[in-house]
Write a structure and sequence with these properties.
Length: about 140
């Protein structure tokens, strides 16, 4: 297995003293990448091209073609992180009255093993439903 390093656990809040490693580290990085508006990081060209704010993207889905392209856009953004060997994204739209949400499942393989990241996104928020690492 590949050592991908370690970092403080940080999905919806910073958890000091607790660390993520391996596939979980990459899954958490993916969550942050999908909730960061493009251009919000300081730095060079790579930082300027970081991020795909799902709330903004989902809020702009107007046609069936926009909806069909969402999974590919997410996959393209995540593949910018070279720790991924493979990424598959499944997007399912749900409508309840005037509310629209998208269940997003990311299945990825890294040198440290596979993981599944499950999100529920709307034009208002992105909720982390779960991160599962290891083989199914």
């Amino acid at each position: 297995m590949t050592d991908l390093g370690r970092d403080t656990i940080c999905t919806t809040s910073l958890r000091t003293g607790r660390f993520a490693t391996g596939a979980r580290l990459v899954a958490e990085a993916d969550f942050r990448r999908l909730t960061t508006p493009r251009g919000m990081l300081r730095g060079g060209e790579e930082e300027q091209n970081y991020g795909l704010d799902l709330t903004e993207r989902i809020g702009s889905v107007a046609t069936k073609a926009d909806a069909a392209a969402l999974g590919g856009q997410i996959r393209s953004e995540l593949m910018k992180d070279d720790r991924h060997d493979e990424v598959t994204v499944t997007v399912v739209r749900s409508i309840s009255g005037p509310a629209e949400s998208w269940n997003i499942t990311v299945e990825a393989k890294t040198g440290a093993g596979p993981f599944t990241l499950v999100l529920l996104a709307s034009a208002v928020t992105v909720e982390l439903l779960g991160i599962t690492t290891g083989t199914a």
